[in-house]
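Here is a typical sample entry:
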Amino acid sequence: MEGQRILSVSGLTVAFGSTTVVHDLSFDIASGGTLAIVGGSGSGKSVTSLAIMGLLQEGVGRASGSIRLGDQELLTLNEAAMRRVRGGKISMIFQEPMTSLNPVQRIGDQIGEAIRIHRGLRGAALRKAVLEMLRKVRIPDPEQRIDNYPHMFSGGMRQRVMIAMALACDPVLIIADEPTTALDVTVQAQTLQLLKDLQRDTGTALLLITHDMGVVAEVADHVLVMRRGREIERGTVHEVFSNPRDGYTRTLIEAAPSLVGKWRGRPAAGQAVDVVPLSFRGEAAVLEVRDLSVRFPSYGGLLGRLKGEVRAVDHVSFAIGQGETLGLVGESGSGKSTIGKAIINLVPGHSGGVTVAGREVDYGNPASLGALRRDVQMIFQDPFGSLDSRQTIGSAIIEPMRVHGLASGKAAVSRMEMLLERVGLEPSRAGSLPHEFSGGQRQRICIARALAMSPKLIIADEAVSALDVAVKAQILDLMVDLQKEFGVSYLFISHDMAAIERICDRIAVMYFGEIVEIGDRDDVIGRPGHDYTQRLLAAIPITHPDQRGLRPPPANNSVPPRSPLRPVDYQSPPTRWDMMAAGHFIRRAG
Protein backbone atom coordinates (compact mmCIF):
# COMPACT_ATOMS: atom_id res chain seq x y z
CA MET A 1 0.00 0.00 0.00
CA GLU A 2 1.41 3.36 -0.97
CA GLY A 3 1.73 5.97 1.76
CA GLN A 4 3.16 9.43 2.14
CA ARG A 5 5.08 11.13 -0.63
CA ILE A 6 8.80 10.33 -0.53
CA LEU A 7 10.13 12.09 -3.65
CA SER A 8 8.65 15.02 -5.52
CA VAL A 9 10.23 16.26 -8.74
CA SER A 10 8.80 19.44 -10.24
CA GLY A 11 9.82 21.24 -13.43
CA LEU A 12 13.18 19.44 -13.61
CA THR A 13 15.33 20.65 -16.50
CA VAL A 14 18.86 19.37 -17.07
CA ALA A 15 21.30 20.94 -19.51
CA PHE A 16 24.89 20.30 -20.58
CA GLY A 17 26.27 23.55 -21.92
CA SER A 18 23.75 24.90 -24.38
CA THR A 19 22.08 21.51 -24.88
CA THR A 20 19.00 20.68 -22.80
CA VAL A 21 18.61 16.93 -22.34
CA VAL A 22 15.67 16.85 -19.87
CA HIS A 23 12.76 19.25 -20.34
CA ASP A 24 10.39 20.32 -17.53
CA LEU A 25 9.91 16.86 -15.98
CA SER A 26 7.58 16.36 -12.98
CA PHE A 27 6.57 13.28 -10.98
CA ASP A 28 6.01 12.00 -7.43
CA ILE A 29 6.78 8.69 -5.70
CA ALA A 30 5.05 7.58 -2.49
CA SER A 31 6.43 5.23 0.15
CA GLY A 32 6.06 1.64 -0.97
CA GLY A 33 5.36 2.76 -4.55
CA THR A 34 7.27 1.99 -7.73
CA LEU A 35 7.53 4.43 -10.61
CA ALA A 36 9.12 3.10 -13.80
CA ILE A 37 10.69 5.65 -16.14
CA VAL A 38 10.82 4.00 -19.55
CA GLY A 39 12.40 5.06 -22.81
CA GLY A 40 15.04 4.30 -25.39
CA SER A 41 18.76 4.94 -25.04
CA GLY A 42 19.44 8.67 -24.90
CA SER A 43 15.92 9.57 -23.75
CA GLY A 44 17.16 11.23 -20.54
CA LYS A 45 16.23 8.49 -18.06
CA SER A 46 19.67 8.06 -16.48
CA VAL A 47 20.41 11.79 -16.50
CA THR A 48 17.25 12.31 -14.45
CA SER A 49 18.50 9.84 -11.85
CA LEU A 50 21.92 11.50 -11.69
CA ALA A 51 20.27 14.86 -11.11
CA ILE A 52 18.28 13.42 -8.19
CA MET A 53 21.46 11.98 -6.67
CA GLY A 54 23.39 15.24 -7.19
CA LEU A 55 25.92 13.43 -9.39
CA LEU A 56 25.87 15.68 -12.45
CA GLN A 57 29.43 16.72 -13.27
CA GLU A 58 30.14 20.04 -11.61
CA GLY A 59 30.58 22.88 -14.08
CA VAL A 60 29.28 20.75 -16.96
CA GLY A 61 25.75 19.60 -16.13
CA ARG A 62 23.24 21.83 -14.37
CA ALA A 63 19.80 21.07 -13.04
CA SER A 64 16.99 23.50 -12.34
CA GLY A 65 13.49 23.12 -10.94
CA SER A 66 12.78 21.30 -7.69
CA ILE A 67 13.74 17.88 -6.27
CA ARG A 68 12.35 17.27 -2.78
CA LEU A 69 13.01 14.22 -0.60
CA GLY A 70 10.22 14.50 1.93
CA ASP A 71 10.44 18.13 3.04
CA GLN A 72 14.10 18.54 2.07
CA GLU A 73 15.04 20.37 -1.16
CA LEU A 74 18.00 18.50 -2.68
CA LEU A 75 19.04 20.96 -5.40
CA THR A 76 20.09 23.55 -2.80
CA LEU A 77 22.15 21.17 -0.62
CA ASN A 78 25.93 21.47 -0.56
CA GLU A 79 28.11 18.44 -1.29
CA ALA A 80 28.67 17.55 2.39
CA ALA A 81 24.92 17.44 3.02
CA MET A 82 24.30 15.40 -0.16
CA ARG A 83 26.85 12.82 0.97
CA ARG A 84 24.70 12.18 4.05
CA VAL A 85 21.68 11.68 1.79
CA ARG A 86 23.41 9.33 -0.65
CA GLY A 87 23.57 5.79 0.59
CA GLY A 88 21.71 6.54 3.82
CA LYS A 89 18.40 7.93 2.52
CA ILE A 90 18.74 7.36 -1.25
CA SER A 91 20.66 4.47 -2.78
CA MET A 92 21.35 3.92 -6.46
CA ILE A 93 21.95 0.78 -8.47
CA PHE A 94 23.99 1.85 -11.48
CA GLN A 95 23.76 0.49 -15.03
CA GLU A 96 27.45 -0.41 -15.54
CA PRO A 97 28.82 -2.10 -12.42
CA MET A 98 32.44 -2.38 -13.55
CA THR A 99 32.74 1.40 -13.88
CA SER A 100 31.00 1.91 -10.52
CA LEU A 101 33.10 -0.50 -8.45
CA ASN A 102 36.65 0.28 -7.28
CA PRO A 103 38.91 -2.20 -9.12
CA VAL A 104 41.58 -2.20 -6.35
CA GLN A 105 39.23 -2.64 -3.39
CA ARG A 106 37.73 -5.93 -2.23
CA ILE A 107 34.00 -6.15 -2.78
CA GLY A 108 33.40 -6.87 0.90
CA ASP A 109 35.13 -3.62 1.81
CA GLN A 110 33.07 -1.70 -0.76
CA ILE A 111 29.78 -3.02 0.58
CA GLY A 112 31.00 -2.60 4.14
CA GLU A 113 31.98 1.04 3.64
CA ALA A 114 28.38 2.15 3.20
CA ILE A 115 27.26 0.03 6.18
CA ARG A 116 30.06 1.41 8.37
CA ILE A 117 29.33 5.04 7.48
CA HIS A 118 25.54 4.95 7.65
CA ARG A 119 24.86 2.15 10.17
CA GLY A 120 27.97 2.47 12.36
CA LEU A 121 28.86 -1.24 12.40
CA ARG A 122 32.45 -2.37 12.96
CA GLY A 123 34.51 -5.56 13.10
CA ALA A 124 32.70 -8.91 13.20
CA ALA A 125 29.25 -7.28 13.11
CA LEU A 126 30.20 -5.43 9.92
CA ARG A 127 31.50 -8.57 8.24
CA LYS A 128 28.36 -10.48 9.27
CA ALA A 129 26.17 -7.76 7.72
CA VAL A 130 28.17 -7.85 4.47
CA LEU A 131 27.88 -11.65 4.27
CA GLU A 132 24.13 -11.37 4.82
CA MET A 133 23.83 -8.97 1.87
CA LEU A 134 25.93 -11.27 -0.37
CA ARG A 135 23.63 -14.18 0.48
CA LYS A 136 20.54 -12.07 -0.25
CA VAL A 137 21.73 -11.40 -3.80
CA ARG A 138 22.79 -15.05 -4.23
CA ILE A 139 26.57 -14.73 -4.56
CA PRO A 140 27.99 -18.30 -4.35
CA ASP A 141 30.55 -19.01 -1.61
CA PRO A 142 30.11 -15.62 0.11
CA GLU A 143 32.69 -16.44 2.80
CA GLN A 144 35.34 -16.73 0.08
CA ARG A 145 34.00 -14.18 -2.43
CA ILE A 146 33.79 -11.40 0.19
CA ASP A 147 37.56 -10.94 -0.16
CA ASN A 148 37.62 -11.03 -3.99
CA TYR A 149 38.10 -8.06 -6.30
CA PRO A 150 35.55 -6.90 -8.93
CA HIS A 151 37.50 -8.33 -11.90
CA MET A 152 37.13 -11.80 -10.36
CA PHE A 153 33.34 -11.69 -10.82
CA SER A 154 31.24 -12.14 -13.94
CA GLY A 155 29.26 -9.16 -15.23
CA GLY A 156 26.05 -10.43 -13.68
CA MET A 157 27.64 -11.08 -10.30
CA ARG A 158 29.15 -7.57 -10.30
CA GLN A 159 25.62 -6.26 -10.79
CA ARG A 160 24.51 -8.33 -7.79
CA VAL A 161 27.26 -6.67 -5.73
CA MET A 162 25.91 -3.25 -6.74
CA ILE A 163 22.41 -4.30 -5.65
CA ALA A 164 23.79 -5.51 -2.29
CA MET A 165 25.47 -2.11 -1.77
CA ALA A 166 22.22 -0.29 -2.55
CA LEU A 167 20.13 -2.40 -0.18
CA ALA A 168 22.65 -2.46 2.67
CA CYS A 169 21.51 0.68 4.55
CA ASP A 170 17.70 0.37 4.31
CA PRO A 171 17.17 3.58 2.27
CA VAL A 172 13.80 5.32 1.94
CA LEU A 173 14.29 5.56 -1.85
CA ILE A 174 16.13 3.26 -4.23
CA ILE A 175 16.94 4.50 -7.72
CA ALA A 176 17.52 1.44 -9.88
CA ASP A 177 19.09 2.34 -13.24
CA GLU A 178 18.75 -0.80 -15.37
CA PRO A 179 19.23 -2.98 -12.24
CA THR A 180 18.71 -6.31 -14.00
CA THR A 181 20.40 -5.61 -17.34
CA ALA A 182 23.32 -7.94 -16.66
CA LEU A 183 21.36 -10.60 -14.78
CA ASP A 184 20.05 -13.90 -16.05
CA VAL A 185 16.31 -14.45 -15.88
CA THR A 186 16.34 -16.57 -12.72
CA VAL A 187 18.40 -14.07 -10.72
CA GLN A 188 16.40 -11.22 -12.27
CA ALA A 189 13.19 -12.78 -10.97
CA GLN A 190 14.77 -13.25 -7.53
CA THR A 191 16.13 -9.68 -7.52
CA LEU A 192 12.76 -8.19 -8.46
CA GLN A 193 11.13 -10.26 -5.75
CA LEU A 194 13.77 -9.04 -3.28
CA LEU A 195 12.99 -5.42 -4.16
CA LYS A 196 9.26 -6.08 -3.77
CA ASP A 197 9.81 -7.79 -0.40
CA LEU A 198 11.90 -4.84 0.77
CA GLN A 199 9.13 -2.44 -0.20
CA ARG A 200 6.54 -4.52 1.61
CA ASP A 201 8.62 -4.75 4.78
CA THR A 202 10.04 -1.21 4.96
CA GLY A 203 7.85 0.99 2.74
CA THR A 204 10.86 1.87 0.56
CA ALA A 205 10.02 3.77 -2.61
CA LEU A 206 11.52 2.61 -5.90
CA LEU A 207 12.37 4.67 -8.96
CA LEU A 208 12.98 2.10 -11.68
CA ILE A 209 14.75 3.20 -14.84
CA THR A 210 14.61 0.58 -17.55
CA HIS A 211 14.02 -0.29 -21.17
CA ASP A 212 12.74 -3.78 -20.27
CA MET A 213 8.97 -3.71 -20.47
CA GLY A 214 8.81 -7.16 -18.87
CA VAL A 215 10.40 -5.75 -15.71
CA VAL A 216 7.94 -2.83 -15.81
CA ALA A 217 4.99 -5.22 -16.14
CA GLU A 218 6.34 -7.24 -13.22
CA VAL A 219 6.93 -4.59 -10.54
CA ALA A 220 5.77 -1.06 -11.48
CA ASP A 221 2.73 0.74 -10.07
CA HIS A 222 3.02 3.77 -12.35
CA VAL A 223 4.83 4.32 -15.65
CA LEU A 224 6.35 7.47 -17.13
CA VAL A 225 7.46 7.19 -20.76
CA MET A 226 10.25 9.51 -21.95
CA ARG A 227 11.55 10.31 -25.41
CA ARG A 228 14.22 12.87 -26.28
CA GLY A 229 14.18 14.28 -22.78
CA ARG A 230 10.43 14.85 -22.56
CA GLU A 231 7.50 13.08 -20.97
CA ILE A 232 5.23 11.67 -23.64
CA GLU A 233 2.91 9.52 -21.53
CA ARG A 234 2.23 8.53 -17.94
CA GLY A 235 -0.34 6.52 -15.99
CA THR A 236 -0.84 3.43 -13.89
CA VAL A 237 0.92 0.34 -15.21
CA HIS A 238 -2.42 -1.25 -16.17
CA GLU A 239 -3.56 1.88 -18.04
CA VAL A 240 -0.32 2.21 -20.00
CA PHE A 241 -0.09 -1.46 -20.99
CA SER A 242 -3.78 -1.93 -21.76
CA ASN A 243 -4.45 1.37 -23.51
CA PRO A 244 -1.24 3.17 -24.57
CA ARG A 245 -2.07 6.59 -26.01
CA ASP A 246 1.23 7.37 -27.74
CA GLY A 247 2.56 5.44 -30.72
CA TYR A 248 6.06 5.26 -29.21
CA THR A 249 4.67 3.59 -26.07
CA ARG A 250 2.86 1.06 -28.23
CA THR A 251 6.14 0.36 -30.07
CA LEU A 252 7.95 -0.32 -26.79
CA ILE A 253 5.24 -2.67 -25.57
CA GLU A 254 4.97 -4.54 -28.87
CA ALA A 255 8.76 -4.89 -29.13
CA ALA A 256 8.99 -6.66 -25.77
CA PRO A 257 9.85 -10.27 -26.67
CA SER A 258 7.74 -13.12 -25.39
CA LEU A 259 7.99 -16.89 -25.39
CA VAL A 260 4.30 -17.33 -24.63
CA GLY A 261 2.94 -20.23 -26.65
CA LYS A 262 6.35 -21.79 -27.38
CA TRP A 263 6.00 -24.51 -24.72
CA ARG A 264 4.90 -27.80 -26.21
CA GLY A 265 5.51 -30.10 -23.26
CA ARG A 266 8.32 -32.27 -22.04
CA PRO A 267 10.16 -34.67 -24.32
CA ALA A 268 9.57 -38.39 -24.16
CA ALA A 269 12.15 -40.64 -22.52
CA GLY A 270 15.49 -40.47 -24.29
CA GLN A 271 18.07 -42.97 -25.44
CA ALA A 272 21.28 -43.20 -23.39
CA VAL A 273 24.46 -42.21 -25.25
CA ASP A 274 28.07 -41.78 -24.11
CA VAL A 275 29.07 -38.81 -26.31
CA VAL A 276 27.24 -35.90 -27.88
CA PRO A 277 28.35 -35.69 -31.52
CA LEU A 278 29.72 -32.32 -32.68
CA SER A 279 26.62 -31.77 -34.79
CA PHE A 280 25.97 -28.55 -36.69
CA ARG A 281 24.06 -27.29 -39.69
CA GLY A 282 25.81 -26.72 -42.96
CA GLU A 283 28.55 -28.55 -44.80
CA ALA A 284 31.57 -27.28 -42.90
CA ALA A 285 32.27 -26.37 -39.29
CA VAL A 286 33.49 -22.83 -38.75
CA LEU A 287 34.23 -23.57 -35.09
CA GLU A 288 34.89 -26.80 -33.21
CA VAL A 289 35.48 -26.79 -29.46
CA ARG A 290 36.59 -30.15 -28.10
CA ASP A 291 36.73 -31.02 -24.40
CA LEU A 292 37.56 -27.45 -23.35
CA SER A 293 38.35 -26.82 -19.69
CA VAL A 294 39.26 -23.56 -17.97
CA ARG A 295 40.41 -23.49 -14.36
CA PHE A 296 41.45 -20.72 -11.99
CA PRO A 297 43.52 -21.41 -8.85
CA SER A 298 42.04 -20.42 -5.49
CA TYR A 299 44.37 -19.53 -2.64
CA GLY A 300 43.60 -19.13 1.05
CA GLY A 301 44.90 -19.32 4.58
CA LEU A 302 47.56 -17.26 6.28
CA LEU A 303 50.27 -18.42 3.87
CA GLY A 304 48.13 -18.12 0.76
CA ARG A 305 48.38 -21.81 -0.09
CA LEU A 306 46.57 -23.33 -3.08
CA LYS A 307 43.33 -24.73 -1.68
CA GLY A 308 41.44 -25.61 -4.83
CA GLU A 309 40.48 -24.69 -8.36
CA VAL A 310 37.48 -22.90 -9.79
CA ARG A 311 36.22 -25.12 -12.61
CA ALA A 312 34.89 -22.25 -14.71
CA VAL A 313 34.54 -24.50 -17.79
CA ASP A 314 34.62 -28.26 -17.41
CA HIS A 315 35.01 -30.50 -20.48
CA VAL A 316 32.77 -28.59 -22.90
CA SER A 317 32.41 -29.60 -26.56
CA PHE A 318 30.32 -28.13 -29.39
CA ALA A 319 30.56 -27.02 -33.02
CA ILE A 320 29.11 -24.23 -35.15
CA GLY A 321 28.49 -24.54 -38.88
CA GLN A 322 28.87 -21.90 -41.56
CA GLY A 323 26.06 -19.37 -41.36
CA GLU A 324 24.72 -20.93 -38.15
CA THR A 325 24.04 -19.32 -34.78
CA LEU A 326 24.56 -21.30 -31.60
CA GLY A 327 23.11 -19.74 -28.46
CA LEU A 328 24.98 -20.27 -25.19
CA VAL A 329 22.63 -19.56 -22.29
CA GLY A 330 22.86 -19.87 -18.52
CA GLU A 331 23.10 -17.97 -15.28
CA SER A 332 25.83 -15.45 -14.52
CA GLY A 333 28.91 -17.37 -13.44
CA SER A 334 27.97 -20.47 -15.44
CA GLY A 335 31.05 -20.11 -17.68
CA LYS A 336 29.41 -18.71 -20.83
CA SER A 337 31.67 -15.67 -21.19
CA THR A 338 34.73 -17.67 -20.13
CA ILE A 339 34.23 -20.01 -23.09
CA GLY A 340 34.16 -17.06 -25.49
CA LYS A 341 37.27 -15.55 -23.93
CA ALA A 342 39.13 -18.87 -23.97
CA ILE A 343 38.43 -19.31 -27.69
CA ILE A 344 40.11 -15.98 -28.51
CA ASN A 345 42.89 -16.48 -25.90
CA LEU A 346 41.80 -13.82 -23.42
CA VAL A 347 41.88 -16.44 -20.67
CA PRO A 348 44.17 -19.49 -20.78
CA GLY A 349 42.59 -22.85 -21.43
CA HIS A 350 43.53 -25.73 -19.13
CA SER A 351 42.89 -28.46 -21.66
CA GLY A 352 41.03 -29.19 -24.88
CA GLY A 353 41.32 -27.98 -28.46
CA VAL A 354 39.79 -25.34 -30.74
CA THR A 355 39.54 -25.49 -34.54
CA VAL A 356 38.53 -22.45 -36.62
CA ALA A 357 37.71 -22.83 -40.33
CA GLY A 358 39.42 -26.21 -40.40
CA ARG A 359 42.67 -24.99 -38.80
CA GLU A 360 43.69 -26.13 -35.32
CA VAL A 361 44.51 -23.07 -33.22
CA ASP A 362 48.02 -23.13 -31.75
CA TYR A 363 47.84 -20.59 -28.96
CA GLY A 364 51.61 -20.54 -28.61
CA ASN A 365 52.15 -19.59 -32.27
CA PRO A 366 51.88 -15.85 -33.16
CA ALA A 367 50.94 -16.63 -36.77
CA SER A 368 48.14 -18.94 -35.68
CA LEU A 369 46.88 -16.31 -33.22
CA GLY A 370 46.97 -13.66 -35.96
CA ALA A 371 44.78 -15.82 -38.19
CA LEU A 372 42.43 -16.48 -35.25
CA ARG A 373 42.00 -12.75 -34.60
CA ARG A 374 41.19 -12.09 -38.25
CA ASP A 375 38.63 -14.87 -38.43
CA VAL A 376 37.03 -14.46 -34.99
CA GLN A 377 35.80 -11.20 -33.49
CA MET A 378 34.13 -10.61 -30.14
CA ILE A 379 31.48 -8.20 -28.96
CA PHE A 380 32.03 -7.79 -25.23
CA GLN A 381 29.50 -7.56 -22.43
CA ASP A 382 30.67 -4.19 -21.04
CA PRO A 383 30.82 -1.70 -23.94
CA PHE A 384 32.43 1.12 -21.97
CA GLY A 385 35.19 -1.13 -20.61
CA SER A 386 36.04 -2.46 -24.09
CA LEU A 387 36.41 0.97 -25.74
CA ASP A 388 39.44 3.23 -25.29
CA SER A 389 38.08 6.31 -23.53
CA ARG A 390 40.60 8.54 -25.36
CA GLN A 391 40.04 7.15 -28.86
CA THR A 392 37.31 8.43 -31.15
CA ILE A 393 34.77 5.82 -32.11
CA GLY A 394 35.58 6.19 -35.81
CA SER A 395 39.24 5.45 -35.13
CA ALA A 396 38.27 2.45 -32.96
CA ILE A 397 36.38 0.92 -35.90
CA ILE A 398 39.09 1.72 -38.49
CA GLU A 399 42.08 0.55 -36.40
CA PRO A 400 41.58 -3.24 -36.71
CA MET A 401 41.10 -2.93 -40.49
CA ARG A 402 44.42 -1.10 -40.79
CA VAL A 403 46.30 -3.40 -38.41
CA HIS A 404 45.28 -6.51 -40.38
CA GLY A 405 45.72 -4.83 -43.77
CA LEU A 406 42.08 -5.18 -44.79
CA ALA A 407 41.47 -1.53 -45.69
CA SER A 408 43.13 1.87 -45.37
CA GLY A 409 42.61 5.49 -46.30
CA LYS A 410 39.30 6.42 -47.86
CA ALA A 411 38.21 2.80 -48.17
CA ALA A 412 38.52 2.28 -44.40
CA VAL A 413 36.70 5.55 -43.67
CA SER A 414 33.93 4.63 -46.10
CA ARG A 415 33.45 1.20 -44.51
CA MET A 416 33.47 2.74 -41.03
CA GLU A 417 30.73 5.20 -42.00
CA MET A 418 28.68 2.43 -43.58
CA LEU A 419 28.93 0.32 -40.43
CA LEU A 420 27.88 3.20 -38.20
CA GLU A 421 24.81 3.67 -40.37
CA ARG A 422 24.03 -0.06 -40.25
CA VAL A 423 23.99 -0.05 -36.43
CA GLY A 424 21.85 3.09 -36.26
CA LEU A 425 24.42 5.83 -35.54
CA GLU A 426 25.16 8.99 -37.49
CA PRO A 427 28.51 8.86 -39.37
CA SER A 428 28.97 12.52 -38.41
CA ARG A 429 29.61 11.33 -34.84
CA ALA A 430 32.72 9.36 -35.82
CA GLY A 431 34.89 12.00 -34.14
CA SER A 432 33.12 11.65 -30.77
CA LEU A 433 34.55 9.85 -27.72
CA PRO A 434 32.85 6.89 -25.98
CA HIS A 435 31.70 8.91 -22.94
CA GLU A 436 29.59 11.09 -25.25
CA PHE A 437 27.27 8.14 -25.99
CA SER A 438 24.64 6.34 -23.95
CA GLY A 439 25.20 2.75 -22.82
CA GLY A 440 23.10 1.35 -25.67
CA GLN A 441 24.89 3.51 -28.25
CA ARG A 442 28.28 2.29 -27.01
CA GLN A 443 27.15 -1.29 -27.52
CA ARG A 444 26.24 -0.48 -31.12
CA ILE A 445 29.74 0.94 -31.63
CA CYS A 446 31.23 -2.35 -30.41
CA ILE A 447 29.06 -4.28 -32.84
CA ALA A 448 30.23 -2.08 -35.72
CA ARG A 449 33.86 -2.62 -34.71
CA ALA A 450 33.42 -6.39 -34.72
CA LEU A 451 31.81 -6.32 -38.17
CA ALA A 452 34.68 -4.25 -39.59
CA MET A 453 36.92 -7.32 -39.98
CA SER A 454 34.41 -9.34 -42.06
CA PRO A 455 35.04 -12.27 -39.70
CA LYS A 456 33.96 -15.88 -40.20
CA LEU A 457 32.71 -16.06 -36.60
CA ILE A 458 31.49 -13.40 -34.20
CA ILE A 459 31.33 -14.22 -30.49
CA ALA A 460 28.59 -11.95 -29.17
CA ASP A 461 28.84 -11.82 -25.37
CA GLU A 462 25.61 -10.17 -24.17
CA ALA A 463 25.72 -8.06 -27.34
CA VAL A 464 22.22 -6.65 -26.89
CA SER A 465 21.94 -6.61 -23.09
CA ALA A 466 22.39 -2.81 -22.86
CA LEU A 467 19.87 -1.96 -25.59
CA ASP A 468 16.25 -0.97 -25.17
CA VAL A 469 13.72 -3.40 -26.60
CA ALA A 470 13.08 -1.50 -29.83
CA VAL A 471 16.78 -1.10 -30.66
CA LYS A 472 17.49 -4.66 -29.49
CA ALA A 473 15.03 -5.95 -32.07
CA GLN A 474 16.68 -3.81 -34.76
CA ILE A 475 20.17 -5.09 -33.86
CA LEU A 476 19.05 -8.71 -33.83
CA ASP A 477 17.41 -8.22 -37.23
CA LEU A 478 20.63 -6.58 -38.46
CA MET A 479 22.71 -9.53 -37.26
CA VAL A 480 20.38 -11.93 -39.06
CA ASP A 481 20.57 -9.86 -42.26
CA LEU A 482 24.37 -9.75 -42.12
CA GLN A 483 24.47 -13.49 -41.57
CA LYS A 484 22.40 -14.07 -44.70
CA GLU A 485 24.49 -11.60 -46.70
CA PHE A 486 27.99 -12.68 -45.66
CA GLY A 487 27.51 -16.20 -44.25
CA VAL A 488 29.02 -15.17 -40.90
CA SER A 489 28.46 -17.51 -37.95
CA TYR A 490 27.62 -16.45 -34.41
CA LEU A 491 28.30 -17.81 -30.97
CA PHE A 492 25.56 -15.84 -29.21
CA ILE A 493 26.19 -15.74 -25.46
CA SER A 494 23.25 -14.41 -23.47
CA HIS A 495 21.06 -14.78 -20.41
CA ASP A 496 18.10 -13.43 -22.42
CA MET A 497 16.12 -16.48 -23.49
CA ALA A 498 13.81 -14.42 -25.71
CA ALA A 499 16.79 -12.97 -27.64
CA ILE A 500 18.29 -16.45 -27.88
CA GLU A 501 15.01 -17.76 -29.30
CA ARG A 502 14.85 -14.97 -31.86
CA ILE A 503 18.29 -15.33 -33.41
CA CYS A 504 19.65 -18.83 -32.73
CA ASP A 505 19.42 -22.05 -34.73
CA ARG A 506 20.60 -24.24 -31.86
CA ILE A 507 20.89 -23.67 -28.11
CA ALA A 508 23.35 -24.98 -25.52
CA VAL A 509 22.36 -24.52 -21.86
CA MET A 510 25.18 -24.15 -19.31
CA TYR A 511 25.10 -24.77 -15.59
CA PHE A 512 28.27 -24.20 -13.51
CA GLY A 513 30.78 -24.82 -16.28
CA GLU A 514 29.00 -27.71 -17.96
CA ILE A 515 26.60 -28.01 -20.88
CA VAL A 516 23.47 -29.69 -19.50
CA GLU A 517 21.28 -29.52 -22.63
CA ILE A 518 21.94 -28.87 -26.32
CA GLY A 519 19.73 -29.10 -29.36
CA ASP A 520 17.70 -27.29 -31.98
CA ARG A 521 16.04 -24.09 -30.77
CA ASP A 522 12.50 -25.41 -31.06
CA ASP A 523 13.38 -28.57 -29.12
CA VAL A 524 15.19 -26.83 -26.24
CA ILE A 525 12.58 -24.07 -25.83
CA GLY A 526 9.50 -26.08 -26.81
CA ARG A 527 10.40 -29.39 -25.13
CA PRO A 528 13.09 -28.72 -22.50
CA GLY A 529 14.36 -31.93 -20.95
CA HIS A 530 16.67 -30.78 -18.18
CA ASP A 531 15.31 -29.42 -14.89
CA TYR A 532 17.59 -26.39 -15.08
CA THR A 533 16.42 -25.48 -18.59
CA GLN A 534 12.83 -25.67 -17.39
CA ARG A 535 13.71 -23.38 -14.48
CA LEU A 536 15.24 -20.82 -16.86
CA LEU A 537 12.16 -20.81 -19.06
CA ALA A 538 9.82 -20.50 -16.08
CA ALA A 539 11.64 -17.32 -14.96
CA ILE A 540 11.19 -15.38 -18.22
CA PRO A 541 9.53 -11.99 -17.53
CA ILE A 542 5.84 -11.44 -18.14
CA THR A 543 4.62 -9.07 -20.86
CA HIS A 544 1.53 -7.56 -19.20
CA PRO A 545 0.79 -6.66 -15.55
CA ASP A 546 -2.37 -8.82 -15.68
CA GLN A 547 -0.01 -11.83 -15.81
CA ARG A 548 1.47 -11.12 -12.36
CA GLY A 549 1.36 -14.23 -10.24
CA LEU A 550 0.43 -16.42 -13.21
CA ARG A 551 3.94 -17.39 -14.31
CA PRO A 552 4.22 -21.18 -14.04
CA PRO A 553 6.62 -22.56 -11.40
CA PRO A 554 9.64 -24.56 -12.58
CA ALA A 555 8.86 -28.15 -13.44
CA ASN A 556 11.33 -29.27 -10.77
CA ASN A 557 12.76 -27.11 -7.99
CA SER A 558 15.34 -29.72 -7.02
CA VAL A 559 18.22 -28.23 -9.03
CA PRO A 560 20.65 -27.63 -6.14
CA PRO A 561 22.86 -24.58 -5.74
CA ARG A 562 26.43 -25.46 -6.62
CA SER A 563 29.90 -24.09 -6.24
CA PRO A 564 32.48 -24.20 -9.05
CA LEU A 565 35.28 -24.53 -6.45
CA ARG A 566 36.81 -28.01 -6.45
CA PRO A 567 39.81 -29.65 -4.74
CA VAL A 568 42.95 -29.69 -6.90
CA ASP A 569 42.81 -33.48 -7.23
CA TYR A 570 39.07 -33.57 -8.05
CA GLN A 571 38.14 -35.87 -10.91
CA SER A 572 34.99 -35.04 -12.87
CA PRO A 573 32.56 -37.98 -13.02
CA PRO A 574 31.92 -39.54 -16.42
CA THR A 575 29.38 -37.62 -18.47
CA ARG A 576 26.16 -39.43 -19.32
CA TRP A 577 23.67 -38.16 -21.87
CA ASP A 578 20.16 -38.95 -23.06
CA MET A 579 19.27 -38.30 -26.70
CA MET A 580 15.73 -36.92 -26.66
CA ALA A 581 15.46 -36.39 -30.44
CA ALA A 582 17.80 -36.03 -33.40
CA GLY A 583 20.41 -33.49 -32.26
CA HIS A 584 18.71 -32.90 -28.86
CA PHE A 585 20.68 -34.13 -25.84
CA ILE A 586 20.34 -33.62 -22.09
CA ARG A 587 22.91 -34.36 -19.40
CA ARG A 588 21.89 -36.95 -16.85
CA ALA A 589 21.93 -36.01 -13.17
CA GLY A 590 24.55 -37.60 -10.98
